[in-house]
Amino acid sequence: MSIRQVAFVYGAPLGVGGLGTQADNALRALALTGRHVHAIGPGPGNSARTRALPNITWHQSPAPPTGRTWWRPLRRFAGVGQSWTDRRIGRFAGAVVARTRPDLCYTFTQVGLETLRWADAAGVPSILESPNGHPRSFREVYVTEAARLCGQRFRGHPTPGMVERVNGELALARRIRVSSQWSADSLAAGGVPAGRLTSLQQPVDLDWYRCGPVEGPSAGPLRVCCVGSLDLRKGFVYLLRAMRSLDGRVPVRLRFVGATGDRCSRGLLERERQGLDVTVRAGDPREALAEAEVFALPTLEDGSPFAVAEAMACSRPVITTTSTGAAEWVTPGDTGWLVAPASAAQLAEALAAAAGARPRLRQMGEAARTEAQRRAGPHCDQVVADWVLAG
């Protein structure tokens, strides 16, 4: 089939957060195919580069009615609110696709079901991009941690209904793109045919994420940075408990760049950080990365290695878990350390090892930058564009 028009369906403003960055990357790759792209979703966000692309028609979905009185109670049930928003984008995209009748549909999970149904009925090829592992595993992490750490039912995203919706998308898509072999293995273990899965690396802006070498005194607290939303899936509690278990034997200064989005996580953060050298702020992570000697991502489930990739591009050795696609980037002892998920003890050992390796941290950071350049340079966009057309 000759491809002239592509429908691209996404659920996060481009360039905003990890999911928005991933969508931004995909849209740039689609633009490289030279085909006309109908971009259907929340809009270009703060991505000036993508907004300027010439072969894109924007179809901006309606914004969620967050200011309305009836919406406010849903804040306590964030999963319901997210599901409502995603289904609304999905229905909007389905209507646009039925009207424009593209030759290829490229969608993200959660917002692509209606588009994929249209593509299946019309005999049009489809691609689904999945940012994480299998949706059942994704939800199970939250359910387990909410019960273990907060003693309550998990009411956030993803809801059981959203898991069912994503399963429907996985069943319909002819090809499924993931960003790591870890994600591919998780989906295959959940029953997705391995032959429909392809792992293609995400690019990183290597000019934007460029820090100087690790510097500073070889004594004093080990300077650690952690970037990402502070929610139960990110495992921040175990990093704080690791710091506490060191009991001053290995002093650590931790800088979180992110925000807590739910009451349970906010309470845990305030409780677990007491007496520790911890600061929290949102915004651009580069200043914190430049000050850090080591980057830590104690995540319990993550398909795309953005935060780790960006830290490595900034020449910082990393500590992360084996339950993330980012683990594929790390060579233990060379560019960082790998630990089991939800293990404060192993995180403490890694922090102590990093403190003991201070004379080598600059060398490890240089090796991390080299690995980021090899894996995540601008060539990634063309690889995705060629793969899209080859299908």
Q: Which strand order does the major sheet show?
A: 3-2-1-4-5-6-7
Q: What is the highest CATH level, the class of the largest domain?
A: Alpha Beta
Helix and strand string, N-terminal first?
A: EHEHEHEHEHHEHEEHEHEHEHEEHHH
Structural class: alpha/beta
Helix content: 40-55%
Head-to-tail CA distance between termini: 10 Å
CATH architecture level-2 label of the largest domain: 3-Layer(aba) Sandwich
Content of β-strand: 15-25%
CATH superfamily of the largest domain: Glycogen Phosphorylase B
Number of helices, where a helix is a run of at least 4 consecutive DSSP H or I residues: 14
CATH topology of the largest domain: Rossmann fold
Which features does this protein show?
single chain; 391 residues; Rossmann fold; seven-stranded parallel beta sheet; 14 helices; 13 strands; globular
Model description:
This protein has 391 residues and is of the alpha/beta class. The chain has 2 domains: 5-200, Rossmann fold (3-Layer(aba) Sandwich); 222-375, 3-Layer(aba) Sandwich (Rossmann fold). Helix content is 43%, strand content 16%. It contains 14 helices and 13 strands. The chain has helices at residues 17-32, 48-51, 78-100, 113-122, 135-150, 160-172, 181-189, 236-246, 263-272, 286-291, 306-313, 344-356, 361-376, 379-390; strands at 5-9, 36-41, 56-60, 104-108, 126-129, 175-178, 197-199, 222-227, 252-257, 277-281, 294-297, 318-321, 336-339. The strands form 2 sheets. It has a 7-stranded parallel sheet, sandwiched between helices. Strands 10-9-8-11-12-13 form a 6-stranded parallel sheet, with helices on both faces. Strand 8, helix 8 and strand 9 (252-257) form a beta-alpha-beta unit. Helix 1 (17-32) packs across helix 14 (379-390) and helix 8 (236-246) crosses helix 12 (344-356). The radius of gyration is 21 Å and the shape is globular. The termini are close together. The relative contact order is 0.12.
